[in-house]
Amino acid sequence: NYSTLNHNYKLQINKNESLYDQVFESKTNTEERKDDEEGITTVRKIYPTSERMKFVYRKNKEVIFKDLIANRDVVVKEEEINFNWKLNKETKKIGSYNCKKATTSFRGRNYTAWYAEEIATTTGPAKFYGLPGLILEIYDADKVFHIKVKKINLKSSNVNFSKKVDWIKKSKKIDLKEYIKQKSNEREEEINEINSKLGKDEPRYKLEDSPKSQDIEIYKK
Protein backbone atom coordinates (compact mmCIF):
# COMPACT_ATOMS: atom_id res chain seq x y z
CA ASN A 1 0.00 0.00 0.00
CA TYR A 2 1.11 3.54 -0.75
CA SER A 3 0.18 6.71 1.08
CA THR A 4 -1.85 9.41 -0.68
CA LEU A 5 -0.22 12.79 -1.27
CA ASN A 6 -2.45 15.79 -1.91
CA HIS A 7 -1.01 18.91 -3.52
CA ASN A 8 -2.50 22.16 -4.77
CA TYR A 9 -1.49 23.55 -8.16
CA LYS A 10 -2.50 26.61 -10.14
CA LEU A 11 -2.87 26.64 -13.94
CA GLN A 12 -2.44 30.03 -15.62
CA ILE A 13 -3.02 30.46 -19.33
CA ASN A 14 -2.54 33.19 -21.89
CA LYS A 15 -2.50 33.14 -25.68
CA ASN A 16 0.92 31.58 -26.23
CA GLU A 17 1.95 29.92 -22.99
CA SER A 18 0.81 28.29 -19.77
CA LEU A 19 2.24 27.70 -16.31
CA TYR A 20 1.12 24.92 -14.00
CA ASP A 21 2.89 25.37 -10.68
CA GLN A 22 2.67 24.08 -7.15
CA VAL A 23 1.04 26.27 -4.51
CA PHE A 24 2.00 26.12 -0.85
CA GLU A 25 -0.66 27.40 1.52
CA SER A 26 1.79 27.33 4.42
CA LYS A 27 4.86 29.56 4.58
CA THR A 28 6.67 27.11 6.83
CA ASN A 29 8.59 24.00 5.84
CA THR A 30 6.45 20.90 5.37
CA GLU A 31 7.20 17.20 5.14
CA GLU A 32 6.21 14.71 2.46
CA ARG A 33 5.91 11.15 3.77
CA LYS A 34 5.87 7.98 1.68
CA ASP A 35 5.05 4.56 3.14
CA ASP A 36 6.06 1.39 1.35
CA GLU A 37 4.42 -2.02 1.55
CA GLU A 38 6.72 -3.06 4.40
CA GLY A 39 5.77 -0.12 6.57
CA ILE A 40 9.00 1.82 6.03
CA THR A 41 8.46 5.57 5.88
CA THR A 42 10.58 7.98 3.86
CA VAL A 43 10.38 11.64 4.90
CA ARG A 44 11.32 14.45 2.52
CA LYS A 45 11.33 18.09 3.60
CA ILE A 46 9.66 20.56 1.23
CA TYR A 47 10.66 24.21 1.34
CA PRO A 48 7.91 26.69 0.34
CA THR A 49 9.86 28.96 -1.98
CA SER A 50 9.13 29.55 -5.65
CA GLU A 51 12.44 27.97 -6.67
CA ARG A 52 11.56 24.72 -4.86
CA MET A 53 8.09 24.33 -6.31
CA LYS A 54 7.38 21.81 -9.04
CA PHE A 55 5.99 23.21 -12.28
CA VAL A 56 5.22 22.56 -15.92
CA TYR A 57 5.75 25.50 -18.27
CA ARG A 58 4.61 25.35 -21.88
CA LYS A 59 5.21 27.74 -24.74
CA ASN A 60 4.08 26.68 -28.20
CA LYS A 61 5.47 23.15 -28.66
CA GLU A 62 8.12 23.38 -25.94
CA VAL A 63 7.63 21.85 -22.48
CA ILE A 64 9.82 22.67 -19.48
CA PHE A 65 9.20 21.03 -16.12
CA LYS A 66 10.92 20.90 -12.74
CA ASP A 67 11.16 17.94 -10.43
CA LEU A 68 13.07 16.89 -7.34
CA ILE A 69 15.50 13.99 -7.63
CA ALA A 70 16.88 12.91 -4.25
CA ASN A 71 15.92 16.37 -2.91
CA ARG A 72 17.90 17.99 -5.74
CA ASP A 73 16.22 20.33 -8.22
CA VAL A 74 16.31 19.45 -11.90
CA VAL A 75 14.81 21.47 -14.75
CA VAL A 76 13.97 19.42 -17.83
CA LYS A 77 13.23 20.48 -21.39
CA GLU A 78 11.33 18.11 -23.66
CA GLU A 79 9.79 18.36 -27.09
CA GLU A 80 6.12 18.37 -28.06
CA ILE A 81 4.08 15.45 -26.73
CA ASN A 82 1.47 13.82 -28.97
CA PHE A 83 -1.25 12.37 -26.75
CA ASN A 84 -3.39 10.81 -29.52
CA TRP A 85 -6.62 11.49 -27.65
CA LYS A 86 -9.69 9.33 -28.34
CA LEU A 87 -12.88 11.38 -27.99
CA ASN A 88 -15.93 9.81 -26.38
CA LYS A 89 -19.62 10.75 -26.45
CA GLU A 90 -20.00 10.25 -22.70
CA THR A 91 -20.60 13.44 -20.68
CA LYS A 92 -20.76 14.54 -17.06
CA LYS A 93 -21.06 17.79 -15.15
CA ILE A 94 -18.17 19.28 -13.19
CA GLY A 95 -19.33 22.33 -11.31
CA SER A 96 -21.43 24.33 -13.77
CA TYR A 97 -19.61 22.96 -16.83
CA ASN A 98 -20.83 20.21 -19.14
CA CYS A 99 -17.77 18.07 -19.82
CA LYS A 100 -16.95 15.48 -22.45
CA LYS A 101 -14.80 12.41 -22.02
CA ALA A 102 -11.50 11.59 -23.73
CA THR A 103 -8.95 8.84 -23.16
CA THR A 104 -5.28 8.33 -23.91
CA SER A 105 -2.26 6.22 -23.01
CA PHE A 106 0.84 8.09 -21.89
CA ARG A 107 4.12 6.69 -20.55
CA GLY A 108 2.81 3.48 -19.07
CA ARG A 109 -0.62 4.62 -17.84
CA ASN A 110 -4.13 4.83 -19.28
CA TYR A 111 -5.85 8.16 -18.64
CA THR A 112 -9.40 9.45 -18.68
CA ALA A 113 -9.92 13.20 -19.08
CA TRP A 114 -13.04 15.37 -18.79
CA TYR A 115 -12.89 18.65 -20.69
CA ALA A 116 -15.18 21.66 -21.09
CA GLU A 117 -15.58 22.86 -24.68
CA GLU A 118 -17.09 26.15 -23.51
CA ILE A 119 -13.65 27.13 -22.13
CA ALA A 120 -11.83 27.56 -25.42
CA THR A 121 -8.25 26.41 -24.89
CA THR A 122 -6.26 23.30 -25.75
CA THR A 123 -4.24 23.57 -22.54
CA GLY A 124 -4.65 21.39 -19.48
CA PRO A 125 -3.05 20.61 -16.11
CA ALA A 126 0.41 19.07 -15.75
CA LYS A 127 1.72 18.06 -19.19
CA PHE A 128 -1.71 17.27 -20.62
CA TYR A 129 -3.10 19.30 -23.52
CA GLY A 130 -4.51 18.95 -27.02
CA LEU A 131 -8.26 18.62 -26.36
CA PRO A 132 -10.88 21.08 -27.72
CA GLY A 133 -11.52 22.60 -24.31
CA LEU A 134 -9.99 23.00 -20.86
CA ILE A 135 -9.34 19.74 -18.99
CA LEU A 136 -11.16 19.97 -15.64
CA GLU A 137 -10.42 16.46 -14.42
CA ILE A 138 -7.96 13.74 -15.38
CA TYR A 139 -6.94 10.47 -13.75
CA ASP A 140 -5.26 7.20 -14.61
CA ALA A 141 -6.95 3.78 -14.49
CA ASP A 142 -5.20 2.84 -11.24
CA LYS A 143 -5.98 6.21 -9.59
CA VAL A 144 -2.29 6.75 -8.84
CA PHE A 145 -2.68 10.16 -10.47
CA HIS A 146 -5.82 12.30 -10.14
CA ILE A 147 -6.33 16.01 -10.83
CA LYS A 148 -9.65 17.80 -10.43
CA VAL A 149 -10.38 21.51 -10.70
CA LYS A 150 -11.34 23.34 -7.51
CA LYS A 151 -11.85 26.89 -8.80
CA ILE A 152 -11.88 28.67 -12.17
CA ASN A 153 -11.26 32.37 -12.81
CA LEU A 154 -11.83 33.47 -16.41
CA LYS A 155 -11.64 37.22 -15.77
CA SER A 156 -7.86 37.64 -15.95
CA SER A 157 -7.37 37.49 -19.71
CA ASN A 158 -3.84 38.94 -19.87
CA VAL A 159 -1.63 36.76 -17.68
CA ASN A 160 2.01 37.86 -17.68
CA PHE A 161 4.51 35.11 -16.92
CA SER A 162 7.65 37.19 -17.42
CA LYS A 163 8.56 37.70 -13.75
CA LYS A 164 7.63 34.23 -12.63
CA VAL A 165 9.38 32.27 -15.35
CA ASP A 166 12.38 34.49 -16.05
CA TRP A 167 14.59 32.34 -13.82
CA ILE A 168 13.13 29.22 -15.47
CA LYS A 169 14.30 30.35 -18.88
CA LYS A 170 17.77 31.20 -17.54
CA SER A 171 18.21 27.99 -15.53
CA LYS A 172 20.38 25.10 -16.65
CA LYS A 173 18.28 22.39 -18.29
CA ILE A 174 18.74 18.73 -19.05
CA ASP A 175 16.95 16.71 -21.73
CA LEU A 176 14.45 13.93 -21.06
CA LYS A 177 17.01 11.17 -21.67
CA GLU A 178 19.30 12.55 -18.96
CA TYR A 179 16.33 13.05 -16.62
CA ILE A 180 15.31 9.39 -16.98
CA LYS A 181 18.89 8.33 -16.25
CA GLN A 182 19.08 10.47 -13.11
CA LYS A 183 15.61 9.37 -11.99
CA SER A 184 16.58 5.70 -12.25
CA ASN A 185 19.52 6.35 -9.89
CA GLU A 186 17.45 8.34 -7.37
CA ARG A 187 17.09 5.66 -4.71
CA GLU A 188 20.81 4.87 -4.79
CA GLU A 189 21.63 8.57 -4.50
CA GLU A 190 19.31 8.93 -1.49
CA ILE A 191 20.90 5.92 0.24
CA ASN A 192 24.40 7.32 -0.34
CA GLU A 193 23.33 10.66 1.13
CA ILE A 194 21.90 8.99 4.24
CA ASN A 195 25.02 6.86 4.73
CA SER A 196 27.30 9.89 4.40
CA LYS A 197 25.65 11.41 7.48
CA LEU A 198 25.94 8.31 9.69
CA GLY A 199 28.57 7.86 12.37
CA LYS A 200 31.63 5.70 11.83
CA ASP A 201 30.27 2.69 13.73
CA GLU A 202 26.64 2.96 12.62
CA PRO A 203 25.32 0.29 10.22
CA ARG A 204 24.96 1.40 6.61
CA TYR A 205 21.71 1.28 4.68
CA LYS A 206 21.52 -0.81 1.53
CA LEU A 207 19.57 -0.17 -1.65
CA GLU A 208 17.12 -2.98 -0.82
CA ASP A 209 16.29 -1.16 2.46
CA SER A 210 15.01 1.86 0.54
CA PRO A 211 11.21 2.03 0.05
CA LYS A 212 9.96 1.78 -3.53
CA SER A 213 7.66 4.56 -4.66
CA GLN A 214 5.28 4.65 -7.61
CA ASP A 215 6.26 7.10 -10.33
CA ILE A 216 3.51 8.81 -12.33
CA GLU A 217 5.36 8.42 -15.61
CA ILE A 218 6.75 4.96 -16.29
CA TYR A 219 9.74 5.13 -18.63
CA LYS A 220 11.01 2.25 -20.73
CA LYS A 221 14.54 1.27 -19.81
Describe the structure.
By secondary structure, the protein is mainly beta. The chain folds into 2 domains: 8-80 and 159-209, no CATH class; 86-147, no CATH class. It is built from 3 helices and 13 strands. The chain has helices spanning 162-170, 176-184, 186-196, and strands at residues 8-13, 17-23, 30-35, 41-46, 55-59, 62-69, 72-78, 86-94, 97-106, 109-116, 134-140, 146-148, 174-175. The strands form 3 sheets. Strands 1-2-5-6-7-13 form a 6-stranded mixed beta sheet, covered by helices on one side. Strands 8-9-10-11-12 form a 5-stranded antiparallel beta sheet, with no helix packed on it. A two-stranded antiparallel ribbon has the order 3-4. The longest helix has 11 residues, at 186-196. 14% of the residues are buried. Mean pLDDT is 80; it is low at 45-51.
Helix and strand arrangement:
Elements: E1 8-13, E2 17-23, E3 30-35, E4 41-46, E5 55-59, E6 62-69, E7 72-78, E8 86-94, E9 97-106, E10 109-116, E11 134-140, E12 146-148, H1 162-170, E13 174-175, H2 176-184, H3 186-196
Parallel strand pairs: 7-13
Antiparallel strand pairs: 1-2, 2-5, 3-4, 5-6, 6-7, 8-9, 9-10, 10-11, 11-12
Short description:
With 221 residues, the protein is mainly beta.
